[in-house]
Design brief:
By secondary structure, the chain is α+β, with helices and mostly antiparallel strands. 39% of the residues lie in helices and 12% in strands. The strands form three sheets. It has a four-stranded antiparallel sheet, with no helix packed on it. Strands 4-6-5 form a three-stranded antiparallel sheet. A two-stranded antiparallel ribbon has the order 8-9.
Length: 304
């Protein structure tokens, strides 16, 4: 059983100030818009899923509704990897919201209009996960892939390629196939490229990821998008809330810092890895994926 997190009053006040800074709120909303937003409780309170937060005022309304700033309500903020521009959840009336949530749960596939490639790198040993992220970053840079990189807020990094930056061949795939493809792609990066700290446990269509610019428990660090220079010189002190609070207004229109690149190059990297594993099945038996390989799935969908 995990140890209960104790809030630090002075840092809680900084957290309130951080989220009430217009520049931070707008940056968060720009990332969370048209997603399913989630407040994940880190202690014993209830996690709040299926929130529709498409504007700053809705962010603050949900903060108020779920008593976000009370000391016994400690939440980390996440949002969906999938895009949902027409989420039905809008009501703040309990009965209406419950009906909307039931409708969404029963038919959520009908609402998906995009699904990002999201790679989570995680390790208790921070030097190891930094090294793994460094290796993956060099691969993506070498292939000129359009990606963003952020500190996870806890013990790792996130690399993401947004759906809008996919080649047309990937956009043509059903979203369920895309999720399976990305899981196999992550295994190949982990095993062929020996990037051992890639988390390959979850790649389903209801997957969620940490909201950029949000304050993350237990260490009050910020899930900050990073430039190349910031990553190259990264220190955990750089993302500790007290060391960022004075610069909050400077983050206005900073965004996710997505690297420029060629959308087609993501497919090139996937093909290269797929062909290296074309005849292998034993590797995937280890991970209980049967005989499905990246090459096989790409071949099945006309991608190789």
């Amino acid at each position: 059983m995990s140890e209960e997190i104790k809030p630090i009053k002075e840092l809680e006040e900084m957290k309130r100030q951080w989220y009430n800074t217009d520049a931070i709120a707008f940056e968060m909303i720009n990332a969370m818009k048209y997603r399913e937003s989630v407040f994940i409780a880190v202690n014993k309170k209830s996690t709040q899923r299926m929130l529709k937060i498409n504007a700053v005022r809705f962010l603050y309304m949900n903060f108020e509704r779920y008593k976000f700033f009370e000391l016994d309500n400690l939440y980390n903020i996440y949002f969906s990897v999938a895009h949902f521009p027409n989420l039905p959840m809008a009501s703040f009336k309990f009965e209406e919201k419950r009906e909307e949530q039931a409708k969404f749960n029963a038919n959520f596939m009908d609402y998906i209009k995009g699904y990002d490639l999201f790679i989570d790198l995680d390790n208790e040993d921070f030097e190891l996960v930094y090294s793994s992220t460094q290796r993956l970053k060099k691969i993506f840079d070498a292939f000129s892939i359009c990606y963003s990189l952020k500190f996870s807020g806890n013990k790792g990094f996130h690399i993401c390629v947004e759906y809008k930056n996919f080649p047309k061949e990937l956009k043509a795939l059903p979203y369920g196939t895309l999720a399976k493809l990305f899981k196999l792609f992550a295994y190949e990066l982990k095993l062929i490229k020996k990037i051992k700290d890639i988390d390959t446990s979850v790649f389903d269509l209801r997957r969620i990821k940490k909201a950029p610019y949000s304050v993350v428990y237990p260490h009050y660090m910020v899930a900050l998008p990073l430039t190349d220079e910031q990553f190259d010189n990264f220190s955990l002190n750089d993302v500790f809330l007290p060391n960022l609070i004075g610069d909050a207004e400077k983050f206005k229109k900073r965004g996710l810092l997505t690297r420029e690149g060629n959308p087609q190059r993501l497919l090139f990297l996937m093909r290269e890895l797929a062909k290296k594993r074309e005849k292998s099945t034993n590797l995937f038996k280890v991970f209980k994926l049967g005989r499905q390989t990246l090459f096989g799935l790409m071949q099945e969908n006309g991608l190789v």
